[in-house]
């Protein structure tokens, strides 16, 4: 017979899910991440990696959350909206943006609203991981938040003509 401490330990232990942001990005040598609302490169293996990382879950009853800024959302071709098999969060300063036509898509105006949703009792059991997917301001805000956990970065060892740039990851 085990001691009361061991027997009741799991009953007494309150497991609190901690929100952690994982950032995922690809950038070229000049820190570019985009050109004309598109990726400046075509790398099938990189797109497959992004999709696998942001989609795969251990618990197949759950999905991952992807957080994108409005411009990044707008740059996704319509046929890929929302990003499939993921819960899409769009962070924007645009008030009353309506994306209700898209399944599993939510609009937020602040990071505080996002964290509040992630911590909701009825919602926190629906997702496994939170992936920050850009753009540059979203990356910067997430990286500087207390919720930042890990960066998954593909470094493309070539310069591309870009009009959108990321943080200088090498100096962080």
UniProtKB/TrEMBL annotation:
SUPFAM superfamilies: Dihydrofolate reductase-like. Pathway: Cofactor biosynthesis; tetrahydrofolate biosynthesis; 5,6,7,8-tetrahydrofolate from 7,8-dihydrofolate: step 1/1. GO terms for biological process: one-carbon metabolic process. Residues 20-172 form the DHFR domain. Its EC number is 1.5.1.3. GO terms for molecular function: dihydrofolate reductase activity. Keywords: NADP, One-carbon metabolism, Oxidoreductase. It comes from the Eukaryota. It catalyses: (6S)-5,6,7,8-tetrahydrofolate + NADP(+) = 7,8-dihydrofolate + NADPH + H(+). Belongs to the dihydrofolate reductase family. PANTHER family: DIHYDROFOLATE REDUCTASE (PTHR48069). This is dihydrofolate reductase.
């Amino acid at each position: 017979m085990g001691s009361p401490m061991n027997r009741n330990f799991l009953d007494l232990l309150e497991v609190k899910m901690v929100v952690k942001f994982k950032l995922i990005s690809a950038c070229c040598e000049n820190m570019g991440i985009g050109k004309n609302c598109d990726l400046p490169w075509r790398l099938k293996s990189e797109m497959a990696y992004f999709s696998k990382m942001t989609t795969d879950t251990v618990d197949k009853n759950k999905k991952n959350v992807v957080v994108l800024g409005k411009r990044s959302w707008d740059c996704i071709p319509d046929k890929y909206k929302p990003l499939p098999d993921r819960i899409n969060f769009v962070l924007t300063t645009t008030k009353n943006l309506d994306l209700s036509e898209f399944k599993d898509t939510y609009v937020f105006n602040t990071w505080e609203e996002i964290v509040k949703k992630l911590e909701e009792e009825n919602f926190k059991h629906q997702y496994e991981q939170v992936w920050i997917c850009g753009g540059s301001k979203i990356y910067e805000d997430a990286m500087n938040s207390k919720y930042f956990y890990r960066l998954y970065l593909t470094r493309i060892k070539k310069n591309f003509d870009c009009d959108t740039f990321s943080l200088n990851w090498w100096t962080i």
